[in-house]
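dude i think i finally got it to work??
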Amino acid sequence: MNDSSPRADNLRAIAAMLAAVGAFAIMDAAMKRLAADLAPAQVTFLRAAASIPFVLAPLLWIGAWQELRPRRPGLYAVRALLGLGMLLSFVYAISHASLADTYAVYLGAPLLVTALAVPILGERVPLRRWLAVGAGLAGVLIVLRPTGETLVTLGGLAAVVSALCYSLNVLTIRVLGRTESSRAMVLWFLVPVALVAGALAVPGWRPIRPEHWGWIALIGLTGAVAQYLITDAFRRAAPSVVAPFEYTAILWAIALDWVLWSVLPGSAVVAGAAIVVASGLYVLYDERRAAYARVSREIT
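look at this
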C-alpha cells in the first residue's frame, strides 16, 4: 500500500489524535497543579513559552527553517487571539473545577465546529445533525447544572468560552492547513500567545518556586508534542475521521482526577458527558456518511 494513500493518512491522523489527547491531558493536569499557585495569565504564558524550545530544537537539528515562513499572517493573528482566549479561559476553568467536569463541557467543541462551519466555511448541515448538536448542548447544560438554586459557575462558563475558542481554532487550522506546514502553525501559535499572556501576567506575577520547574518542563514537552500532533491530525484527515477520538479525553480526565486528586465525577457530569459524547459521535458519523455518499455520486 502506498504510504501517501488516503487510508494511510487516516490511520496516521487517528494515531496522532490519540497521542495528542493523552499528551494534552497530562499537560492539563500539570497546568492545574500550577494554577493552584499562579494566576491564569502566568500559567498561560508558561504553557506557551515552555513549549517553544521543544518546537525549535528539531528544526535546529534538521535545518528546516524554511517551513516556518507564514504565508497568511492575518489568519495566524486570528488564530493566536483565539488560542489566547482558549488557554486563559481553560486555565481558569481547571483552577476552579476538576478535569473531568471541565472536559465534560469542553467535549462539546466538535458540536460547535459543526455549527460554526455553516457561517464560516459555508458548509451545509441537515436538520438531523442540528438536532444532534442541540442534544449535545443540552448535555453540556446538564453538566453545568444551571438551576435556580445552583447557578452556572464561573469555572463552567470559562470552559464554555474555551470550547468556543477551540472550535474556531479548529476551523482556522482547516484553512491554514491548505498552505502552511504543521511546524509553522504550531510555532506561530505559541509565540504570540506567550508574548501577550506574558504582558498580561506581569502586573500580578508571582514568584516561581523550585518545585514548579518540573511541572513547567512537563507542560513544555507535552504541550509542544500535543500541539504538533493535533495540528498534523487535522491536516492529514477530515475532522469526521479524527475528531471522534478526542472523546478519549474524558477517560484521561477521570483517571488523572482519581490518581492525582482522589476525585471522581458526579452523576450529573457522567450523564451530561454521555449525552455530549453520543451526540458528537452521531454528528461525526453523519458527516462521514454524507461525504461517502457525495463521493459515490461523483464516481457514478
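The chain has one domain: 6-299.
im so relieved honestly
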